[in-house]
Amino acid sequence: MEPMIQHTHLLNEKLASYRSLIDVHIADSYKGAQPKTLYDPIEYIFSAGGKRLRPILTMLACESIGGIPEQAAGCGAALEILHNFTLVHDDIMDRSPLRRGRETVHVKWDEATAILSGDVMMGIAYRLLINEVKDSPRGMEIMSRFTQGLIDVCEGQSHDMEFQQKSIVSMEEYLSMIEMKTARLIELSAVIGGLFANANQLQVTALHTYSYHLGIAFQIQDDVLDLLSDDKEFGKVTGQDLIEGKKSYFIVRANEVITDGTDAEFIQTYIQKKGISKEDIPFAIDIFRKHGIIKDAIHAVQSHIGAAQSALSMLPANDGTRGLEIIAHKMAVRTI
User: What's the distance, Cα to Cα, between the start and end of the chain in Å?
Assistant: First the structure.
């Protein structure tokens, strides 16, 4: 085997064991809780599985600093619960019918149930994290960062909603929004793993830089997948962002580079009407492809992945750091 292929194979085996441990922590966090009307939706959410990217980053980051990754699994599980809390509420606000190929909670039950189940998930996440870090010398710092991360994600979601009412959104505004809404929890996951292992400031900076760029790449890649993946592959309606009228990477970039002609009129109509029909998705894709915007998005992903990998040179050379490098490599083609 080539070194990268061999390391990737070994990492996949490691990640499978990490996911199992994370899922145990998640299940234990609400085991036997009542009433069922509150906790059945939570069981439904986590029974869908998932890559568990954020808690895996927590464990690998801990390992990269020299800590024991299994001991950071509880912190990672708390982050995964928090992440899923944000998804439940996002789906309500976006009126999204599908999540991971299944009905969203507010569709399967109702909005009130989804709101309440999401709220209790946030409480469960805090309870779990407090229990995990109460004896850690960096416990208060971890809790403080966790809290600020939650605030940042909510602010990012608010900006995303505001963008739907604005006719013009700059690329700078878009990147600032996705930094808070998407990249922040990915950053938080890696940094908390490092802090749990008592990382020094240089190491924390390296993990922060790595995960920031990874998070930006993740969201731009998410915009690409929303546009180009089929429903079954992605578990969501293809072009859902455009149907909802979101200012995705493609709309923001198109508004910058397409200044006249029928394509510009199409983009302006999209902005004015706050979205397009499902039938217009292929035409929109043709516009983005013709003007090089799809290639531009893919290049942006690759650029941020490169920056993420470069930051790892400041960390010790070990299996944890190697795992973070492979995670970034896999992210470029979105296999995790």
Answer: 21
**CB neighbour class for 94 (10 Å; exposed up to 12, middle 13-18, buried from 19):** middle
* DSSP letter (8 states) at residue 180: I
- Domain total of the chain: 1
pLDDT in tens, 110-132: 999 999 999 999 999 999 999 99
Question: How many degrees, rounded to 5, is the angle at CA 291 between CA 287 and CA 296?
Answer: 115
* Dist. CA 161–CA 172, nearest whole Å: 16
Q: What is the CATH number of the domain that holds 238?
A: 1.10.600.10
pLDDT confidence of residue 1: 36
Look up the domain containing 305 and give its range.
3-332
C-alpha distances in Å from residue 247, one per residue of 106, 153, 251, 275: 24, 17, 5, 9
Residue 270 is encoded by which pair of tokens?
């999209």
Distance CA 201, CA 205 (A): 6
